[in-house]
Amino acid sequence: MFSPLAFPTGMVLYDLTFAVPPTSHLELFPFDVYREPLVVIAIADGKELPQSSETNQKHPTPEGLDILLEELDAVKERNPRALVNQLLVFDHDGVNKLTNGPENVLWVPRPEDSKATTMKTVLCDITSVLLGELDEFAKTIQAIPTIESPKASSWGPHRNPELRPRAVDRLMSRMTLPAQLPSSPNGGPPETPLSSNASSPAPSDHETPTTFDEITRSIHLSRTNSGGRSPSISSPKEHSRDRMSVSGVSATDRTKNRIKGRAGVVVGTLFLQAGRWPDALKELSEAANNARAGSDYVWHGKALESILLCLLMMGWAGMDFQVCVLLRIRP
Description:
- It contains 9 helices and 4 strands; from the N terminus they run H-E-H-E-E-E-H-H-H-H-H-H-H.
- By secondary structure, it is α/β, with parallel strands linked by helices.
- Among the domains are: 37-143, no CATH class; 144-150 and 209-224 and 235-319, no CATH class.
- The protein has a 4-stranded mixed beta sheet, with helices on both faces.
- Strand 3 and strand 4 form a beta hairpin.
- It is elongated and about 85 Å long.
- The relative contact order is 0.11.
- The model is unreliable at 153-165, 173-206, 228-234 and 239-247 (pLDDT under 50).
């Protein structure tokens, strides 16, 4: 799905960082896929490892390699949502060419034994693994029934950044969780990790309103709870009927468009990150239409933002593209 053969002039730009993103950024995933690190690179000094005693091996097997592999597993546990975890061992004695093995370990020769393209080859190998992992992740995105919008409220269990679930696990868990939190056996409100904090904002059973109907319903519920309901205000159902009768789109069709639009935005963003800009532009254009048809304005805006990024990248690379401007003339 993300093979570079379909677009050989594509390009992947890496933004290297040494810090873990804050939780406030991570909570925007998958609305902003780039908020979550997709590749984690561990670096080891091969000079500190003794020379391999065994010969005729496809890759070095020095004493202490098992310790590095255990530390690599610890890195995976601390970054479970990363799609690629790669260990690079530099300057090990006896390594005169780029060698791969065991799994997720790459041996980089000393500078005097390296070629001008050695480090480029290293990044190409890592990118190849990333593109393969993106394929499975994109299929998971297309298979799940719904994708949530970012929360405007900070209520909820605060995740430890050292124990974050994988992207696939988090998305799949949303499929199994009920739409509303179950009540406790004694009839009281459900317990949460923040129940002891009196200053925490009250939880909401629904995601942040993104459409006109949801905003209207949210205002109606808040006025009902405060006892300030006005008899002149019509019910949310009447608003929904009025809007459906005007637009001619049923609630079921609007929901389908919303689901297709959100999945298309995420997949289009993955195409953008994978260097497949023409495919990203095509996917995001269709996603923008679906989001608009589903009155999903937050994701519609996200699709338009990503389309603009595609055009900027294509213009930066010197690629030609067409922009159609439609003018509506009113008498």
